[in-house]
Write a structure and sequence with these properties.
- This protein is elongated.
- The protein has three domains: 41 residues; 167 residues, Penicillin-binding protein 2a (Domain 2) (Alpha-Beta Complex), CATH 3.90.1310; 330 residues, 3-Layer(aba) Sandwich (Beta-lactamase).
- The N and C termini lie far apart (114 Å).
- Strands 2, 3, 4, 5, 10, 16 and 17 form a seven-stranded mixed beta sheet that branches.
- It is 34% helix and 23% strand.
- It contains 18 helices and 21 strands.
Length: 545
């Protein structure tokens, strides 16, 4: 009998201890979770999106700003599915209408509802439908800056997310911090009007002030669009940079898209060709090779080319001039003036592949420029061990090697800037914080840069594009015409025409590169890209007086 009482007593003690431990678990360990659940049951939590920061041109005009819009919320305890509402919403939010968990409070269905759509929804007089102020992106300059700016879409959670360009690169600064509204609710999940409210206001995103000259951006867009039509080109780019600082003054690529309607455009158009597409630069590249040879003292401006009397054999290949004209005993200045491929083979041999590759890397080729735009890429320079004689020969006149337009412009800007290469940048200020230019890197000597500048001035004044040069201005530049590689060979009927240069030659205020892909009227850069460059330059001279 005594042992039975002991068992009962022990069982009671264990049972009591278990209850105490369980109570301790709920009161101590799970206290925070229980408090949160209780708060959720008696409170409604509403996230208030922050206004996204604006993006301004250098004169303070909005390239991107916000316009009135609304958030659409549904209370599943009151809402009855409506086909009419579904038809007013985009495809994705409309699909969510019939799949809302019934135990939720107010549930966010759609963002960026326009005022007109809001009015149409309100006219339906549906129960359990509510709105809160929101904003959507507005692009006052339409699509003229699409590739530069990027667009705002949604991430996997349905939150606003910047993609490409400035919107993507500076998304963290632009997005701001969301606010919150906490309100008591009754047993039926309805807000209590006299209930306690806690309001945390949203913090707007940062304002970006760019280096973009709004007038130059629009002029470049207009001139490029007209050139594509005039010359029958498939696509084209215009990039204008301040060579002393790397500040981008204008950046336009066509064809483009409307950032406010990005979902209606082909995703192939989203990437900015100026920073993501590579091309063989052709004769514009001769400026870099000659500058390297001058800096290495492999040649002097008056060095005589001893192979320029005719075509030159390289391994199993024959290199000719672009027009089958030859200039025996040409000096280096004339090699650039005549855009002589044979003369550049001479220069390449004098320099050698090791030094050439070393200088190309100094000019920033083979790696991204570091510009503050999302989705920049860079073609690689093949390892020196894989180069053969023909590679050195073709690279010397800009074939068989690839660059992005921005890489090419940056490299030439080093010549304009007396041998110092800038780092490209678009944003000058974040709110009131000034973003200074990065220190430039020495690529070639000042004397080599000045010698190359004089050669480029002579190329403009006496070369094949002299007919298009505006009078009264000192311009340093070089044309380029490169065949496009297709399936392991070059298509003779398809070229990329380009012109790169800077002005005024003695104290450059701007450097500019224009490219035209597959112009139909003429394949030559001197007859297509050069006139476009000079046409835009005349407007720059007028604006930058």
């Amino acid at each position: 009998m005594k042992w039975r009482l002991s068992v009962i007593q022990a069982t009671f003690i264990i049972f009591t201890l278990g209850i105490a431990l369980r109570l301790g678990y709920w009161q101590v360990v799970k206290a925070a979770d229980l408090a949160a659940e209780a708060a959720w049951q008696r409170q409604s939590f509403l996230e208030i999106p922050s206004p996204r920061g604006s993006i301004l041109s250098s004169d303070g005009f909005p390239l991107v700003t916000n316009q009135e819009a609304y958030l659409l919320y549904i209370n599943p305890r009151q809402f009855i599915f409506s086909e009419k509402l579904s038809r007013l919403l985009p495809a994705s939010p409309s699909a969510r209408l019939s799949n809302i968990p019934p135990n939720l409070g107010w549930y966010l269905i759609a963002r960026h509802i326009s005022a007109s759509i809001r009015d149409q929804i309100q006219s339906l007089r549906l129960a359990g439908v509510g709105f809160e102020p929101d904003s959507s992106r507005l692009y006052p300059e339409a699509s003229s800056s699409a590739h530069l700016l990027g667009f705002v879409g949604q991430d996997s959670a349905g939150n606003p997310q910047g993609y490409f360009g400035l919107e993507g690169y500076y998304n963290r600064q632009l997005v701001g911090v969301s606010g919150k509204l906490v309100q008591e609710k009754d047993a039926l999940n309805r807000p209590i009007l006299i209930g306690v409210q806690d309001y945390l206001p949203p913090q707007p995103g940062s304002i970006l002030t760019t280096s973009i000259n709004r007038a130059l951006q629009f002029i470049s867009y207009q001139k490029l669009a007209a050139a594509l039509t005039r010359y029958g080109a498939v696509s084209g780019t215009v990039t204008i940079m301040e060579p002393s600082t790397g500040r981008i003054l204008a950046m336009v690529s066509l064809p483009n898209y409307d950032p406010s309607l990005f979902s209606q455009a082909s995703p192939e158009l989203y990437k900015n060709p100026i920073i993501s597409d590579s091309f063989e630069p052709g004769s514009t590249f001769k400026t870099l090779v000659m500058a390297a040879a001058l800096d290495a003292q492999a040649v002097q401006p008056d060095t005589v080319c001893d192979i320029c009397a005719g075509p030159v054999s390289v391994s199993d290949y024959v290199v000719k001039t672009w027009n089958d004209k030859y200039y025996p005993k040409s000096i280096m200045n004339e090699v650039i003036q005549h855009s002589d491929n044979v003369g550049m083979v001479f220069v390449g041999r004098r320099l050698g592949k090791h030094k050439l590759i070393s200088y190309l890397k100094k000019f920033g080729l083979g790696q991204p420029t570091g510009v503050d735009l999302q989705e920049e890429s860079s073609p690689q320079i093949r390892p020196e061990s894989t180069w053969v004689d023909i590679d050195l020969a073709t690279a010397s006149f800009g074939q068989g090697i690839a660059v992005t337009p921005l890489q090419m412009l940056r490299a030439v800007s080093a010549i304009a800037n007396r041998g110092l290469m800038p780092k490209p940048k678009v944003v000058d200020k974040i709110n009131d914080k000034i973003i200074p230019p990065s220190p430039p890197a020495r690529v070639i000597s000042q004397s080599a840069a000045l010698q190359m500048t004089l050669m480029m001035v002579n190329a403009v004044d006496s070369g094949e594009a002299k007919w298009a040069k505006p009078k009264g201005f000192s311009i340093a530049g070089k044309t380029g015409t490169a065949q496009i590689p297709v399936s392991g060979h070059y298509d003779a009927d398809k070229t990329i025409a380009s012109f790169v240069g800077f002005a005024p030659a003695d104290q450059p205020k701007f450097a500019m590169l224009v490219t035209l892909r597959e112009p139909k009227s003429s394949p030559w850069g001197s007859e297509t890209a050069a006139p476009l460059w000079f046409d835009i330059a005349k407007e720059i001279f007028r604006l930058l007086k």
